[in-house]
Write a structure and sequence with these properties.
- This protein has eight helices and no strands.
- Among the domains are: 53 residues; 106 residues, no CATH class.
- It is an all-alpha fold.
- The longest helix has 47 residues.
- Helix 5 runs antiparallel to helix 6, helix 5 runs parallel beside helix 7 and helix 6 runs antiparallel to helix 7.
Length: 254
């Protein structure tokens, strides 16, 4: 009989503890409930710690990169293959939208940008292989590679292609500058290119080369000092000989 009374008391106390735990606010963390002190249970009561609030993190701002070279192309412009077709001008808006740059691929937009740059520098309408046209095509390609590498900086293959295109454009501009300087200035101005002169001599600065350079400078300074002393001695000897000659002339005249 006493055992049944004890079991009933234990069941009542556990039921009270469950009810108090169920009354905990929903934002209370499970770890806080687990870490609550168990020694404070007294006749169906349960000590609940204060609720733990989890605040939202601040939203990260998206990095805005430099403006693309294709941003000046309006989306309503027709693609290059359909711009000269007269039927597209009389078609409805849906067909024009399908043939416009709004639904065009990146390669089609890049081709249109190349044609725009070529039109700025070409000599006439039939010019498609001159140095100016090659520079315009390489400029559009280089800028496309630069925009791609800003998003995917680990793309080594496209970085190599970009450097090769830059070297090719440098050679073309160097030859154009030597042959026709006015055309060179016009191309740089129209395409927005800043031409920098390459260094006359470049060598990797190793420890051995730096030590050798410092030693050569010391030797050069020592040689210059020695030559200056020799020149001073020569001047003194010449001045002494001149004074002796003057004395002998004076003695002869007397």
């Amino acid at each position: 009989m006493f055992t049944t009374i004890g079991l009933r008391a234990a069941l009542k106390s556990s039921a009270g503890a469950l009810c108090s735990a169920a009354s905990v606010k929903p934002w209370t963390s499970c770890s806080a409930l687990r870490s609550a002190p168990t020694a404070s249970r007294v006749a169906g009561s349960f000590a609940v710690p204060p609720p733990v609030r989890h605040y939202a993190r601040v939203a990260k701002k998206k990095k805005t990169g430099p403006e693309s070279q294709l941003s000046d192309l309006p989306p309503t412009m027709l693609m290059l293959d359909y711009a000269a077709v007269p039927l597209t001008q009389t078609s409805d808006d849906i067909v024009k939208r399908l043939l416009s740059l709004e639904l065009a691929s990146h390669s089609e937009k890049l081709q249109l940008k190349k044609e725009q740059l070529i039109a700025k520098v070409q000599r006439d309408e039939s010019d498609h292989s001159s140095v100016e046209v090659k520079v315009a095509v390489l400029t559009a390609r280089i800028r496309n590679y630069q925009e791609h590498l800003q998003k995917h900086h680990k793309d080594k293959a496209n970085k190599r292609r970009m450097l090769m295109a830059i070297d090719r454009r440098k050679k073309l501009l160097k030859n154009l500058r030597l042959v026709r300087f006015d055309t060179f200035e016009k191309v740089c101005e129209q395409l927005g290119i800043t031409y920098t002169f390459p260094p006359e001599y470049y060598r990797r600065a190793t420890r051995r080369w730096l030590a050798k350079k410092e030693f050569c400078i010391k030797v050069f300074k020592a040689v210059q000092k020695q030559r200056a002393q020799q020149r001073m001695e020569m001047k003194q000897s010449l001045s002494s000989t001149e004074t002796e000659a003057d004395k002998t002339k004076a003695a002869e005249t007397q």
